[in-house]
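To whoever picks this up:

The nightly regression suite flagged ATP-dependent RNA helicase mtr4 as changed. Nothing in the input moved, so I suspect the structure step. Input below, exactly as stored in the fixture:
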Amino acid sequence: MKNFDDIKKQWLSKDKAKQEYKALCEELRKAQSVLQLEELSHRKRMLRRLEYSDMSDVITDKGRCACELSAADELLLTEMLYGGVFGELTPAQIAALLSCFVFQENAKTPKLAEELSGCLRKLHEYARRIAKLSVECKLDIVEDNYVDSFKPGMMDVVYQWVNGASFAEVLKDSDIFEGSIIRCLRRLEEVLREMINAAKAMRNVELQEKFEEARFRIKRDIVFAASLYL
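Regenerated output under the current build:
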């Protein structure tokens, strides 16, 4: 009987532990729900501050424009669109600047000409605005990390490519692996497609044509061949 009593105690102890585990899981689920509701509230506040939605949470025209963008940071791109940043740039500058949204490697930053470094400064300026507002709205973000996430390593490569340089010429002037360049240009083409739709949503024909021109100049040669082995 002693052995039976020991087994019974072990079973009761195990059953108690199971019940405590279930109770803790339920508490965790409730805590996560509260945190998610808080984050949702903070995000809604952010969207209202940026005028993507009104006080009744109805999406504005600006919000509908942001809905066209999913391949890159939609908030920053929309702010730059409405801030007139791209309207001041050539198609080549636009493509070079947008490469910062899709290039993720920690490549050595090349010395940029003023026509590109000025664009990059503008991007950083808008990124800091987004980060500061995010902090004000109690969203979890580190300003410098957010700004540094937009990497300029491909700007010069893209600028040359859009201005007609051959793939061999681009490779000669860059330390970036050719596969990385091809992936970046293909992702960039996708971003430009969405930017065209965003410009349409804004009813900005001039901007739409600039994005279309940039996309047309990117989509050529070996980069967009059906097979790179042909």
